[in-house]
Structure formats: C-alpha cells, structure tokens
Amino acid sequence: MTTTQSSGSRAKSLIATINGPWHQRVLALYMIIVVAHWAEHIAQAVQIWGLGWSTPEARGVLGMPFPWLIKQEWLHYGYALVMLIGLAILLPGFQGRARTWWRISLIIQVWHHFEHLLLLIQSLTGAHLLGSATPVSIAQLVVPRVELHLFYNAIVFLPMIVAMYLHVRPTRAEAAKMTCRCAPARTAAALAR
Known about the structure:
There is one protein chain. This protein has helices at residues 3-18, 23-50, 67-70, 73-90, 96-125, 145-167, 172-177, 184-192. By secondary structure, the protein is mainly α. The chain has one domain.
C-alpha cells in the first residue's frame, strides 16, 4: 500500500468513525460551535436594534473585549469554512429524510462560504467589488451585511434543526441504515425486526 492509499484509508476510516460511534458526540460539539456563532449574531442584533448602537459599535460578545477581532475577515471566513467542513463530514451519518435536510443546509453553506471567500480575497488584496470602500459580498450589494449574515445563518441553521429532529426520530427503514447511536431505541427496534 502506498502512502497516498494509506492516508486515504485512514481518512475514510476516520469519517466512518465520526459518522458511526462518534456521530452523536461530534454532532453535539459541532452544534455548540454553531450555537456560539448564533449567540454572536444575536448579541450584535440586540446591540443594534435593541440598544440602538451603531453597526461599528455593535461587535457581538467577543468583539466587545477584542474590537480588532470582529474586523478580521479571516475569522468570518474561518467560521464559514468550519461550518462547510462540519456539514460535509457529518453528512454520511444522516439517512433518508434527515439526510435530505442536512444536504440542503450544506448546499446553502457552499454559497455562504463562497461569499466569505470573496470577502477574504478582497480584504487580502485591497481590490474591492465594484470599487466599494470596504469588502462586500455579492448579496451585500443589495442587503446590508448584518441583516444578510443573520439571514444566511438562519437559512443554514433551520434545515440543520429539521435534519437533527428527523435523525433522532428515524423511520424503521432509516434506522436500519444508521451506523450511529443518535437514536438508540429506534435503531435497536429496527434492527430487531
């Protein structure tokens, strides 16, 4: 076996483990990251619309003690990339209806990631879209950034929630195909039949 085949086998084995015995724990960890990110967006929204702060003043939770952090495009891009990788890696653990909803979330995140990549490239090169003073994404040409990213995160998050709900409540056919223990009673019942 060559080194490439060996590393490919290890990667497949790791993905199988993540979507098998580790699925419930990795999914829980992933959701902690997702919810923490949501907390940042919600805090920023409260700061703007609840407290009347200007957008530059409204820096979320982490941006208050670390104001420079919120202005770092690599941070936003890094989160979009983590979301994309997490959605892709965890996809094989979902079956049937849950997989369809998880895939919808993944597809939307591909676009969201692209928008953040575009912002990062502009930030790094200084060449801004349509001569804008600051980096802007394509959709941001129409919708302000705060509102746009609240929307993006919502339309990625909602199908994830539906997917997880269906994942822990699989049909008999879905439970029989599951390799994880996210729905132990239903999976055991399906396998016993």
